[in-house]
């Protein structure tokens, strides 16, 4: 057999398993329990007296910019 024949046979076998699995009923799912809400922890930006003077931009990981509000720099400084 050639490599392509082997690949075709594997693909057809996988398809047959998929079709056979679809005929069986799905197992019952466990109910999702709600998570308890955590109390908010104060961050450095909210406890700082100059919090209203900061840029406040947030990056994807949740860090906030520590530059002054309306800064001219193109980049942010996160902490």
Automatic annotation (TrEMBL):
Biased composition range(s): Low complexity: 32-47
Superkingdom as given in the UniProt entry: Bacteria
Chain spans, region Disordered: 1-79
Basic and acidic residues bias (residue ranges): 1-19
Protein name (database record): Uncharacterized protein
Source organism of this protein record: Nocardioides euryhalodurans
High-level lineage: Bacteria, Bacillati, Actinomycetota, Actinomycetes, Propionibacteriales
């Amino acid at each position: 057999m050639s490599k392509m024949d082997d690949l075709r046979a594997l693909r057809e076998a996988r398809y047959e398993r998929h079709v056979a699995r679809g005929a069986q009923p799905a197992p019952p799912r466990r109910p999702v329990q709600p998570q308890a809400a955590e109390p908010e922890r104060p961050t450095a930006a909210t406890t700082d007296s100059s919090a209203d003077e900061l840029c406040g931009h947030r990056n994807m990981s949740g860090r906030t910019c520590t530059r002054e509000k309306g800064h001219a720099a193109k980049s942010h400084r996160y902490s």
